[in-house]
């Protein structure tokens, strides 16, 4: 055992020295074996045989006891049984499948110049190495026979392998690995790991044999530059030479060749030329000496005939030629000298060596070959033509290393060694590139290879993949085929498909032969599909070059393969290509390995794995996929690597099943020695770890990070600069402008380059990039908000049970059919106001008739808008982004959008958890708790209580953003609805009708949000000054004397007091506009109070009794047709309810339960339809008559206008019409929802008529009743009193504040009600309060509190309230009096009583 994973056994003639390969890298057997050989090798003596075993399980891997060993002078044979048929490698041939056929297939190995055509012919290289996959565990082993003689290898069904070689020895190396990749690494450790080519050699390359002249070469260069093709390298083949002589150029057709390299360099491109080994014996044009030949003759550098003195002469391209003996040091020195001379004349960047099998157009030589055992051995392997010297030199020719019989297949190898020395001599410390046609194990340490003179056929494009995979096994990863084919005219379709796949060859070159049509991409036309798809995939190649370059670095340092099969992995281990290899086909059958995979171009996750699928690949597409778990370094592409290397870099991170990924980046100057920057990712932590002192001269930075497989946006992203010693330094949180999440594709785009000189993740530095995610649970959107959800119900709505949220907008509520024709309209009203509306254009669905203040013309200058709007389709959604910060303040591109007749749902992600608003319900805190709370909204006569919908409806919220900006959102919808908060953070709206009509104001401060919102819905009414004074009221005054006594007591106590109220107890039997006899003196009391500066407000309810024999308010209302009725097709009658008014002439027995009292004693009541102008006129007339004829007043208090009723729907409880209106398919979580929407109010099918005459259902306008009641009351007050006054209303809707104030309803005398009334925290003896970061003064003592930006404990005695004034403000003030009127009177008489508190 040479190492723990490498066994060598050698069978040779102990008495006679035989030829052994003089490999420059392979070491001799160590004298200190690493482990006992008996663990892995059994030796049998009779008959002789060797059995190689895997030491862990003693499985026989290579068992030669299957057949006899034959060891003769010119025939050696050894057979071995193998553990499986999974055999790969052996070359160089065209293998029509990657895994070998073991049905008695024989493969000859002997270097030969011949066209690869799919037959079992020996080709350019000599590689007696194969890999065997033992079983499904992945354990594998490799077998290498170090022997350069002509041989053949037969694969047999046993399975078994038989070697037959005609010289040398058996020198076997067995490599053990747990994976195929490890076996390759062990093999390359032996023969030499691959060279890391210069960065520019990763670029795309163009070549052809016989451009004809340099002008044509330049035309090709220019036309491909003109179409913007990424393109780094231009070649010239032997036609640049003078009569195809090495180290010359044609002075006529290639006159300007000495300047050609500079011509390319000016645009960042490189120049490569070709050299063949054969040297012409003829003189140059005009009889001039061919000095390269002459100097070679002087130094005796040629391969000789069998006499060892006479150069053997053959014929190649320039005519009669001699052949350098690259195994001779003298020859190597000559070659280096000739190359250096030539380089001084013709500058270029790298070298392509060809015809080095060695190729000879004659059989052996100009004089043939002698009849001897070397030229005609006893056994000839099944090589092409079955003649050893066919298309090459005689086998008895002599080289320094030995007979050509033994070293023929080493000719290319020895030429590579000599050329490497020449390149080092010329290019010094700079890395260059070599490309060789003939190869032998170990060539990859210095050179790349192309697969030779292929043909423009669909077979060749397919077979090239096998060839590249095999050369990965052979340690030559810089490998490619001639794109579009060398021989033959390539069709546009074939060349297009070849350019697509060839864009990802490690060595990517388009090359074709003379006399065939040009096939460089631009030759097909600038607007051709071929050019467009070539540019597209080459740009992807150039984007991924940092990744490809890193793969070569890993191949160079560890022996990893670059292109690999699924057996190993894929392109690297993370990029999978699926090309189309069949003419006229756009759908191919491909296998998706068992892993997470993402489409590179769409970034979407594939749904299939571990199965064959049909993949659609139209004319311009190649399948390209990223394996989950990858971190791929990228760089913004350009047309050359010279320019792309100056561009910012990025990362593509593809998360695997465990939300993890890892990767590395190697980076250097591209030409000389390098460093490593490694990148690793664990879940949501990303490290840039720098391993040496390298500083990139371009000051490159990682500016873009793309993370695939992230279904939800991160809560935050930060970049931390790590100081020396792994100490964390400054951390910068990325602003939202630098973060974009595509919910449809589940991708995060991070821009890590930050403004204001904040360094981004740069080379030469170490950084920690971190993004934080919410739990997956928090990202789910509930598509079954009703109770009793189960898997069947969930799936019937297109949802995924438990795992994630709704995938479509299917209602799955049979009584609420889906609406399939929707229109989306975005209106850019102003720079800080936009509207987005979703509705059904094919039907006349209800829209809220509340007028809003929007400009006539939109803001057309996009740059002036504070926002931008995007619409996504998978899933459908609207995104509103604040331009200044990039914050998504609205993002409804999440699952769950539903639009059906009676159920509409839309969810949006929120930019933060700071959400305020929505009402009217009792909220325990001002800032909403987002832990899955749902709040119903439907106006109702309901005292405040936790999660109980109360009097008003306000579907408006204000949100703060992480940047401290603020915005507001209004849903203009008046149907019953609810909103659900979840900690994502996200919000879901659900409503049972209407449309989605959203208005958004952009602030950016909270105060500006309120200003912009009230500009939209209407500025609040300016109340009368006196209404700012203290006010007294109660429900239950016994008579007018009680009110009079109360007033006197308040005055006597000196308590400031401006307004006195009267509740319904002043009315006779709670009838509007009728004074009770117990309050007959109230008008006089009110007059007296008003004369002393007081104001009086009385209450009115909307419900009007219809059971009176003489009640003018009802009679005039009925005559004016102001009351809400049934639709005529159901019943031409008022929808009767019951509220406070009692029947006439009854005594109420209050000992009875409430429902019984209502049934027996309450009168039928009618509800005015305040939408109509005639109703407003009637209402004003009744108020006018009351003011003029009964009692003066200064304000109105309107109550019970939700509208409230003490029966459910109507008297008798039977609502006419569609029962779904009372109990819709979806019922929001309302108080007593099980009793229906008509609980304690009108039937939802009641008909109301808008001012424009449109008939609407109460179902749609119920929440607008209080709103419609308020303006007629306000107008009546102003008209009747002639003064501003004040209206106080219980039920409200957005814009009610234009006319009225509001109180929080019928609360209870409890401490918690005090707390909730101010949405604060109160304790009996002290309170914890937060003082913002400013100077604060105690109002009472005028002293600086001395605390800012922190919580403080404050005493709360019963005689004291904590009151503080913020520094920096001037507060105007007046001397207080008992009423506001006295303050004004005093101010008029003495102008010096006012003052300022500063």
Automatic annotation (TrEMBL):
EC number, as in UniProt: 3.2.1.20
Catalytic activity, reaction form: Hydrolysis of terminal, non-reducing (1->4)-linked alpha-D-glucose residues with release of alpha-D-glucose
Entry keyword Signal: yes
Domain Glycoside hydrolase family 31 TIM barrel positions: 194-551, 1020-1324
UniProt signal peptide: none
Subcellular location: Membrane
Alphabetical GO biological process terms: carbohydrate metabolic process
Domain Glycosyl hydrolase family 31 C-terminal residue range list: 571-632, 1325-1371
Any GO molecular function: alpha-1,4-glucosidase activity
Domain P-type: residue ranges: 777-803
Keyword list, A-Z: Disulfide bond, Glycoprotein, Glycosidase, Hydrolase, Membrane, Signal
CC terms in the record's Gene Ontology section: membrane
Location of the Glycoside hydrolase family 31 N-terminal domain: 39-152, 823-977
PANTHER family found in the cross-reference section: ALPHA-GLUCOSIDASE (PTHR22762), P-TYPE DOMAIN-CONTAINING PROTEIN (PTHR22762:SF133)
Recorded family membership: Belongs to the glycosyl hydrolase 31 family.
Name this polypeptide is given: alpha-glucosidase
Native organism: Nothobranchius furzeri (Turquoise killifish)
Lineage summary: Eukaryota, Metazoa, Chordata, Craniata, Vertebrata
């Amino acid at each position: 055992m040479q190492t723990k994973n490498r066994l060598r056994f050698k069978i040779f003639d102990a008495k006679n020295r035989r030829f052994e390969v003089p490999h420059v890298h392979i070491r001799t057997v160590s004298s200190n074996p690493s482990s006992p050989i008996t663990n892995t090798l059994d030796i049998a003596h009779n008959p002789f045989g060797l059995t190689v075993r895997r030491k862990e399980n003693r499985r026989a891997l290579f068992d030669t006891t299957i057949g006899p060993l034959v060891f003769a002078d010119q025939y050696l044979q050894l057979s071995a049984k193998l553990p499986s048929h999974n055999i790969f490698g052996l070359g160089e041939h065209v293998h029509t499948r990657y895994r070998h056929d073991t049905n008695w297939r024989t493969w000859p190995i002997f270097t030969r110049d011949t066209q690869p055509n799919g037959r079992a012919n020996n080709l350019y290289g000599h590689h007696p190495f194969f890999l065997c996959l033992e079983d499904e565990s992945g354990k594998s082993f490799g077998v290498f026979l170090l022997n350069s003689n002509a041989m053949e290898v037969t694969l047999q069904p046993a399975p078994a392998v038989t070697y037959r070689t005609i010289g040398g020895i058996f020198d076997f190396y067995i490599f053990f690995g747990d994976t195929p990749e490890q076996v390759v690494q062990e093999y390359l450790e032996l023969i030499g790991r691959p060279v890391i080519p210069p960065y520019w050699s990763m670029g795309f390359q163009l070549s052809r044999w016989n451009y004809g002249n340099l002008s044509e070469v330049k035309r090709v260069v220019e036309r491909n530059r003109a179409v913007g093709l990424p393109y780094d390298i231009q070649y010239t083949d032997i036609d640049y030479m003078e009569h195809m002589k090495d180290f010359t150029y044609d002075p006529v057709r290639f006159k300007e060749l000495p300047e050609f390299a500079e011509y390319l360099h000016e645009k960042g491109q490189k120049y490569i030329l070709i050299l063949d080994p054969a040297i012409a014996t003829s003189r140059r044009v005009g009889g001039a000496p061919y000095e390269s030949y002459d100097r070679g003759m002087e130094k005796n550098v040629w391969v000789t005939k069998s006499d060892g003195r006479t150069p053997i002469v053959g014929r190649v391209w320039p005519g009669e030629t001699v052949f350098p003996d690259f195994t001779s040091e003298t020859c190597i020195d000559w070659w280096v000298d000739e190359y250096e001379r030539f380089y001084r004349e013709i500058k270029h960047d790298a070298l392509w060596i060809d015809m080095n099998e060695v190729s000879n157009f004659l059989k052996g030589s100009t004089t043939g070959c002698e009849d001897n055992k070397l030229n005609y051995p006893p056994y000839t392997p099944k090589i092409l033509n079955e003649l050893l010297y066919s298309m090459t030199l005689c086998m008895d020719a002599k080289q320094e290393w030995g007979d050509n019989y033994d070293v023929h297949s080493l000719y290319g190898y020895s030429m590579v060694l000599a050329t490497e020395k020449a390149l080092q001599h010329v290019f010094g410390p700079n890395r260059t590139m070599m490309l060789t046609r003939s190869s032998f194990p170990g060539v990859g340490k210095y050179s790349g290879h192309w697969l030779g003179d292929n043909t423009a056929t669909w077979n060749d494009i397919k077979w090239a993949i096998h060839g590249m995979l095999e050369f990965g096994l052979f340690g030559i990863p810089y490998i490619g085929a001639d794109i579009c084919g060398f021989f033959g005219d390539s069709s546009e379709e074939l060349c297009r498909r070849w350019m697509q796949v060839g864009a990802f060859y490690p060595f990517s070159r388009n090359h074709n032969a003379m006399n065939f049509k040009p096939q460089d991409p631009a030759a097909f036309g600038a607007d051709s599909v071929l050019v467009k798809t070539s540019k597209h995939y080459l740009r992807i190649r150039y984007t991924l070059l940092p990744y490809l370059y890193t793969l070569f670095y890993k191949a160079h340092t560890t022996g990893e393969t670059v292109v690999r099969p699924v057996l190993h992995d894929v392109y690297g281990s993370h990029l999978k290509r699926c090309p189309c290899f069949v003419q006229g086909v756009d759908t191919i059958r491909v296998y998706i390995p068992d892993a997470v995979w993402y489409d590179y171009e769409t970034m979407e996750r594939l749904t299939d794995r571990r199965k064959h699928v049909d993949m659609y690949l139209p004319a311009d597409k190649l399948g390209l996929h990223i394996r989950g778990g990858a971190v791929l370094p990228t760089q913004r592409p350009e047309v050359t690597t010279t320019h792309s290397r100056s561009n910012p870099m990025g990362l593509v991170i593809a998360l695997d099943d465990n939300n993890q990924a890892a990767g590395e980046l190697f980076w250097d100057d591209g030409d000389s020695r390098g460093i490593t920057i490694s990148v690793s990712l664990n879940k949501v932590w990303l490290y840039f770890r720098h391993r040496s002192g390298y500083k990139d001269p371009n000051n490159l930075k990682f500016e873009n990070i793309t993370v695939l497989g992230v279904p939800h946006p991160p809560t935050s992203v930060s970049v931390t600069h790590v100081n020396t010693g792994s100490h964390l330094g400054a951390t910068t949180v990325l602003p939202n402008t630098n973060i974009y999440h595509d919910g449809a594709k589940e991708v995060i785009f991070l821009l890590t380059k930050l403004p204001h000189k904040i360094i981004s993740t740069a080379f030469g530095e170490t950084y920690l990039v971190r993004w934080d995610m919410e739990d997956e649970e928090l990202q789910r959107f509930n598509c079954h908000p009703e109770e009793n959800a189960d898997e069947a119900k969930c799936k019937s709505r297109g949802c995924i049970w438990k795992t994630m949220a709704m995938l479509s907008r299917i209602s799955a509520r049979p009584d609420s059919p889906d609406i399939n024709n929707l229109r989306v309209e975005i209106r850019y009203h102003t720079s800080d106001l936009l509207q987005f509306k979703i509705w059904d254009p094919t039907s006349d669905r209800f829209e809220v008739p509340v007028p809003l203040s929007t400009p006539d013309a939109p803001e057309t200058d996009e740059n002036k808008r504070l926002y931008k709007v995007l619409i996504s389709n998978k899933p459908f959604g609207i995104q509103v982004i604040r331009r200044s910060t990039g914050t998504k303040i609205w993002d409804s591109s999440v699952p769950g959008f539903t639009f059906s007749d009676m159920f509409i749902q839309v969810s949006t992600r929120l930019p933060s958890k700071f959400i305020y608003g929505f009402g009217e319900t009792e909220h325990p805190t001002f800032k909403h708790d987002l832990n899955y709370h749902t709040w119903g909204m439907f106006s109702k006569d309901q005292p405040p209580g936790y999660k109980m919908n109360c009097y008003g409806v306000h579907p408006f919220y204000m949100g703060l953003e992480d940047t401290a900006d603020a915005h507001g959102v209004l849903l203009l919808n008046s149907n019953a609805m609810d909103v659900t908060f979840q900690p994502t953070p996200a919000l879901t709206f659900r409503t049972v009708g209407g449309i989605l009509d959203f208005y958004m104001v952009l602030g950016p401060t909270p105060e500006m949000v309120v200003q912009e919102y009230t500009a939209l819905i209407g500025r609040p009414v300016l109340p009368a000054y006196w209404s700012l004074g203290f006010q007294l009221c109660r429900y239950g005054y016994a008579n007018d004397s009680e009110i009079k006594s109360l007033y006197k007591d308040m005055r006597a106590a000196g308590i400031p007091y401006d307004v006195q109220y009267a509740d319904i107890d002043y009315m006779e039997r709670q009838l509007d506009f009728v004074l009770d006899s117990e309050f007959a003196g109230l008008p006089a009391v009110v007059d007296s109070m008003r004369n002393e500066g007081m104001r009086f407000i009385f209450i009115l309810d909307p419900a009007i009794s219809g059971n009176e024999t003489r009640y003018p308010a009802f009679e005039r209302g009925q005559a004016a047709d102001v009351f809400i009725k049934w639709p005529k097709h159901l019943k031409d009658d008022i929808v009767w309810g019951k509220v406070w008014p009692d029947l006439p002439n009854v005594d109420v027995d209050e000992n009875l339960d409430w429902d019984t009292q209502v049934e027996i004693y309450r009168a039928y009541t009618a509800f005015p339809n305040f939408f109509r102008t005639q109703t407003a006129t009637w209402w004003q007339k009744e108020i006018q008559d009351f003011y003029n004829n009964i009692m003066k007043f200064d304000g109105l208090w309107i109550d019970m206008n939700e509208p409230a009723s003490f029966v459910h729907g109507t008297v008798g409880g039977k609502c006419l019409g569609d029962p779904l209106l009372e109990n819709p398919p979806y019922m929001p979580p309302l108080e007593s929802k099980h009793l229906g929407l008509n609980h304690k109010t009108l039937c939802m099918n009641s008909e109301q008529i808008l001012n424009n005459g449109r008939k609407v259902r109460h179902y749609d306008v119920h929440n607008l009743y209080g709103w419609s009641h308020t303006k007629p009351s306000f107008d009546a007050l102003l008209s009747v009193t002639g003064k501003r006054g004040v209206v106080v209303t219980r039920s409200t809707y957005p814009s009610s504040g234009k006319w009225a104030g509001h109180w929080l309803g019928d609360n209870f005398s409890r401490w918690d009600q005090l707390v909730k009334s101010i949405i604060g925290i109160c304790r009996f003896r002290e309170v914890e309060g937060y003082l913002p970061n400013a100077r604060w003064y105690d109002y009472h003592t005028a002293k600086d509190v001395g605390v800012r930006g922190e919580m403080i404990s404050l005493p709360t005695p019963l005689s004291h309230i904590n009151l503080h004034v913020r520094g920096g403000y001037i507060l105007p003030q007046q001397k207080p009096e008992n009423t506001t009127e006295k303050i004004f009177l005093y101010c008029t008489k003495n102008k010096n009583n006012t003052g300022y508190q500063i």
